[in-house]
Structure formats: structure tokens, C-alpha cells
Amino acid sequence: MKNLIFLLLPIGLFSQDKCFDNGEKHYSASSGLLFIKDTEESILLIHPKHITFQENKTNLSYEQDEISEYKDTSESWQEQKAKYERKYAEFNKYFNNQFRYIQIQKEKNLSYALAENTFGYWLLEIKNKKGRAYYIGFNKNTYINRNQKEKFVRNNKLFIDGSFIAIAGSWGRPGHPEIEAVKDYLTFEISLNEIKRDSDGDGYNDFFENLIFLNPNSKDTDGDGIPDFTDLNPLHKSANNKFTNLFEEIIEKDSTNFNNQKNNYTFETYESDCEYFQKVNPKNKRVLILSDSQTYKLKSDYKQGLFSTFYGRIKKGSSENIFYIPYFHSMEGGKIIAVYENGKWSIQEDQEFKI
Predict the structure, then answer these.
(1) What are the pLDDT digits (tens) for 207-252?
(2) How many CB atoms lie within 10 A of CB 21?
(3) Is the bond leading into 174 cis (omega within 30 degrees of zero)?
(4) Where are the beta strands (DSSP E) in the chain?
(5) Separation CA 117–CA 140 (nearest Å)
(6) Can you tell me the distance from the alpha carbon of 124 to that of 90, in angstroms, rounded to the nearest whole number?
(7) β-strands 287-290, 268-271: how paired?
(8) Reduced to 3 states, what is the DSSP secondary structure of residue 337?
(9) Per-domain residue ranges for the chain?
(10) Residue with the larger pLDDT of the pair 306 and 84
(11) What tens digit of pLDDT does each residue of 323-350 get?
């Protein structure tokens, strides 16, 4: 499950058995799982079939590329930031800082960018004053060089330099895993027709919809009348009741500033089996609420931070209108104290530890 420690979260039509704490143990940390180091053979077994590759010794290795990104420069941080913003100003106009850009290529009336976000690597396109983003569909063992050739799109194909990488050893929080190269000096080749395929024409390419468990053959996966591309909760048809309202209150406070309804490629992602949680109707943020089994099956090349705050099962307090929900976020955790009075929720956070 990709070393997730976001464990298991609340579900249930509305089955309450996966939403409320009944005193039994519901969560188990993944840190105790046996670490198995990825090898070239195991990486090739899961390598996407639509992506071919060949060795090119003129490319930078993973280590060389990593070093080059942080090499000494006479420019200040502010000067580097200003240069970056000028270089990618056209893309920020259309994509509103939803991506970290790697390289751009400009043609007549057409611009491309290689970029990444928490889900992984993307090809961005601006054509006829319209921006489109295409999830490329690499696996988690693929690293894309920050130093790319100026023309990475040619002959209706995408050519990207990079490496196969692996986590060097078992790890857990705090800190990040040590990464090492498994196979360097690679150039990956992908057909533009493959990554641009959008079978239902909803704005998300098929690779991205398959990744996040949307239906690539339906513009409205959950059947709520709102197209997936504009639906703020595209996996689940929203409901309106006491406990969905509670989770709506909680996640609205848990939002990041850049995540709003206009950012179609930015989601706050949660793991939960509780239908009260799954059926929220968010107002100002786009959410992706995966079941535990979906999280286990997730085949993303995502970076650190894909999953947002973990919320556990609801525990009833001594009074019938008081409830507690455990949470864990990044390096801190505690419980949410929720009080229901006069048809409204008031919530506060009780931080119990910080690493």
C-alpha cells in the first residue's frame, strides 16, 4: 500500500458499522509490513505497456540530474523564483499553479509542458487558447529528469529522459526514504494518441480516470448529474444528513489554500470506508475519497503528500450530542471534538502529539 500510514478510515447505505467506533481495533500500521526492495525485474513487470524505453548514454543519470537541480548559482532564491514564474507564466494562466513545471516546448499556436503534481507526471497542452492536461501513466518507480531536451514532442510522440528508481531500504516517518537508481540513462517514448485518449470526452484522459477509479466511459461516474470534470466529489453521489454535514465541516477546515473548485486537477485525497464521509458535498474544494481496497490498488507514480489528513471512526461521547474523531496529519495527531446543538455542528481540534 505504498507505505501509507493513513490506515483505515470510516464507511457504510448508510451502514454505520464502518463509521462508528465499537471498541474493537480497526486500524493497523503499514510500517510493520515486510520491506521488499524493488529490482529491475520487478519494475519491468509493472512497467506500463504503452510506454517503451531505450538506453541513451548522453542523458544525465538520476544522481547527476538531482545534483544539477540544486547546484550553486549566483542568483538569489527570489531571482530564481521570478525567472521560473516568467518562464511558465502562460501555463500558470491556464492551470493556476496546480503543477510543478519541468520543461516547455513552444510551437506555432501550440505550447507543451512537462509537469508533475501529487498524482505524478503530466503533459500539458495549450492550443487555441484552451489548456488540457494529460496524465502520462508512469509507475512509481519512474523518475523524470529535470533536464529535458528542448523538443520532447515530435512526430506525434513524447520523448522523456529519466531513470528507474527504487527506495533503498525500509523507512517510516519522520523523514523521507532514500532513493537510488536501478537503471539510468533511459529515454521513454509514448504515443500522444495514447495519452490524449478521452473516451467519454469529459476533460480527463483515460489514464487519469482509470488511476482515480472514475469511469472512462461515462462523463458522470456517480450519476449525480454533475460531470466528473466539474464535480467536487466525483466518485460518490452526495447526501445531506447529520454526519455528512459533520465531515463537510471538518474537511472544509482541512483544505489547502490553492485547492478550489476551479482547479480540476487538484484534489484533497482521503482514504475512508465510511459512507457518511464518502457522500460529503464540499463547497470550496475538490475531494477524492477512496475506499481502503481502492487505496491498496492505487497504481500512481505519486509523490509524497497524496493523501490528506487521516480521520478515524466516530466515537460517541458521554453526552448524546458530543462525538470524537481521531485524526493524523503529517507529523501531528489528536482528535476532533464535535458538538451537535440546535441542528448545527461546532468542532475543535485537540492536538495530542507532534513529532
Answers:
(1) 999 999 999 999 999 999 999 999 999 999 999 999 999 999 998 8
(2) 16
(3) yes
(4) 51-55, 100-107, 110-117, 120-127, 130-135, 142-144, 153-154, 157-167, 179-191, 268-271, 287-290, 310-311, 315-316, 322-329, 332-341, 344-354
(5) 13
(6) 11
(7) parallel
(8) strand
(9) 40-196, 232-350
(10) 84
(11) 999 998 877 899 999 999 999 999 999 9
